[in-house]
């Protein structure tokens, strides 16, 4: 009996070992798919422009290549004094940050063709959208029993849930995203900011009394949880009362009540969530993501991105708890050197500053295609514009008629995607999209 059992155990163990060898073997084989020479050159060309771009524009930052053609490290000068301590570990922030350029170029370029506002169309099209997803966007949604009572869930979301997206990719030309950094008080950017087609602000950022520095115009405002709960106060910040409010967390009963009863006439929407790994998850990055999904070009003001960080101050209040300032600065520099944004700061105050060594559109496109292959993204390198769609849903589109009133860039893009609306799917393997196409 004993021997039999032992034999069984041995057989099982060797089975497990064989399986492990198989898994490890297969996954290492698949780690770096074979690239064509063209793909490899595209990534090398991106790396080399990128590194030159960081040295030429980063005010002391230097980029060097990492262990493969995707990896890059951005370093601060060694005499930089790190000030910010991680509250959990008590450790000072380091002076060196690793980034995966392939990941960044593939994910951010996808944002430019995506819709980042939550719609009813999205929830309806998502498999089990109401049961698995909708309740997560409602504060205390866990008590809603997976939206068993759909009427109730719908009721809670209805005030912030448009049927279809209110904005299209490329709808606006030049957009400015305004952070809340105290650095804004060093330069009178007000007039310049008002010259943009769209201005996107964050949380409780005041305009009145600061217009010389931050401008008057305000088109959108991205709100975190705390600001969204004070919606009544937030709407007072913009005198025109036309600002569109975009909440990055959940809808809250308090918010619903305010919208109904005060009443708040500004449009209010929820933002779809996509994940950009460990990089700053603050309102600033969300605002950039939203801007990139609706604008041709995105300029950034009021982020703490110059050398000499001492403490985090906001332009309208005393110093507060900041977070990962050095990491943030490198991340935004990476975004600039991938052609996603242009940084404006006290030390880079010339509106017409040219970002030197910016990789060309063609290099970015080729590098994006190569990156999709490396990362095994859904529809990698597919010629089909709907190749990245993990879910395709045919819908009767009520609004496609109104498209003709839009700019050429919108119409051309819509023609390219055959009228599809593309939503990034959160945590979807291979970063697939949910695509709603005209029936
Ligand atoms: C579902 O919610 C609606 C709206 O609150 C309510 O009127 C209805 O009674 C609920 N239905 C059930 C079966 O609980
Ligand atoms: C602007 O300044 C005036 C006068 O000091 C003050 O009453 C008002 O509350 C300020 N507005 C904001 C939004 O801070
Ligand atoms: C986004 O759309 C443009 C056309 O407007 C297309 O050229 C580009 O390849 C698309 N990008 C992605 C990541 O699908």
TrEMBL record:
<keyword id="KW-0325">Glycoprotein</keyword>
<dbReference type="GO" id="GO:0000139">
    <property type="term" value="C:Golgi membrane"/>
</dbReference>
<keyword id="KW-0333">Golgi apparatus</keyword>
<dbReference type="GO" id="GO:0009860">
    <property type="term" value="P:pollen tube growth"/>
</dbReference>
<dbReference type="Pfam" id="PF00777">
    <property type="entry name" value="Glyco_transf_29"/>
</dbReference>
<keyword id="KW-0735">Signal-anchor</keyword>
<keyword id="KW-0328">Glycosyltransferase</keyword>
<keyword id="KW-0812">Transmembrane</keyword>
<dbReference type="GO" id="GO:0008373">
    <property type="term" value="F:sialyltransferase activity"/>
</dbReference>
<dbReference type="GO" id="GO:0009846">
    <property type="term" value="P:pollen germination"/>
</dbReference>
<dbReference type="InterPro" id="IPR001675">
    <property type="entry name" value="Glyco_trans_29"/>
</dbReference>
<keyword id="KW-0472">Membrane</keyword>
<keyword id="KW-0808">Transferase</keyword>
<comment type="similarity">
    <text>Belongs to the glycosyltransferase 29 family.</text>
</comment>
<protein>
    <submittedName>
        <fullName>Sialyltransferase-like protein 2</fullName>
    </submittedName>
</protein>
<dbReference type="InterPro" id="IPR038578">
    <property type="entry name" value="GT29-like_sf"/>
</dbReference>
<keyword id="KW-1133">Transmembrane helix</keyword>
């Amino acid at each position: 009996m004993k021997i039999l059992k032992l034999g069984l155990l041995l057989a099982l163990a060797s089975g497990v070992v064989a399986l492990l060898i198989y898994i490890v073997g297969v996954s290492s084989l698949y780690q770096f798919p074979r690239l064509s020479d063209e793909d490899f050159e595209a990534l090398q060309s991106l790396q080399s422009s990128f590194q030159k771009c960081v040295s030429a524009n980063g005010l002391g930052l230097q980029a060097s290549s990492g262990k493969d053609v995707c990896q890059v490290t951005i370093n601060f000068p060694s005499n930089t004094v790190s000030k910010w301590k991680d509250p959990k570990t008590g450790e000072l922030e380091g002076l060196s940050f690793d980034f995966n350029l392939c990941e960044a170029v593939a994910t951010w370029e996808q944002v430019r063709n995506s819709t980042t506002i939550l719609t009813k169309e999205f929830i309806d099209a998502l498999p089990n959208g109401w049961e698995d997803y909708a309740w997560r966007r409602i504060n205390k949604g866990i008590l809603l029993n997976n939206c068993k009572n759909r009427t109730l869930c719908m009721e809670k979301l209805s005030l912030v849930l448009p049927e279809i997206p209110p904005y299209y990719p490329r709808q606006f030309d030049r957009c400015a995203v305004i952070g809340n950094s105290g650095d804004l008080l060093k330069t009178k950017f007000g007039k310049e900011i008002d010259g943009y087609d769209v201005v996107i602000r964050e949380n409780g950022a005041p305009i009145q009394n600061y217009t010389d520095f931050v401008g008057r115009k305000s088109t959108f405002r991205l709100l975190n949880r705390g600001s969204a709960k004070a919606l009544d106060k937030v709407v007072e910040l913009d005198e025109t009362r036309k600002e569109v409010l975009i909440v990055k967390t959940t809808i809250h009963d308090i918010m619903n009540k305010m919208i109904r009863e005060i009443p708040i006439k500004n449009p209010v929407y929820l933002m779809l969530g996509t994940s950009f790994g460990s990089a700053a998850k603050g309102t600033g990055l969300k605002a950039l993501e939203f801007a990139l999904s609706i604008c041709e070009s995105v300029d950034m003001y009021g982020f703490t991105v110059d050398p000499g960080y001492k403490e985090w101050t906001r332009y309208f209040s005393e110093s507060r708890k900041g977070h990962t300032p050095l990491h943030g600065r490198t991340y935004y520099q990476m975004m600039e050197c991938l052609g996603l944004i242009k940084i404006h700061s006290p030390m880079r105050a010339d509106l017409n500053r040219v970002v030197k060594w910016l990789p060309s559109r063609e290099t970015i496109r080729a590098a994006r295609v190569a990156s999709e292959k490396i990362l095994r993204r859904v529809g990698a390198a597919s010629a089909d514009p709907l190749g990245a769609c993990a879910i395709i849903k045919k819908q009767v589109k009520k609004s496609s008629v109104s498209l003709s009133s839009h700019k050429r860039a919108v119409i051309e893009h819509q023609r390219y995607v055959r009228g599809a609306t593309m939503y990034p799917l959160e945590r979807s393997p291979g970063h697939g999209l949910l695509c709603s196409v005209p029936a």
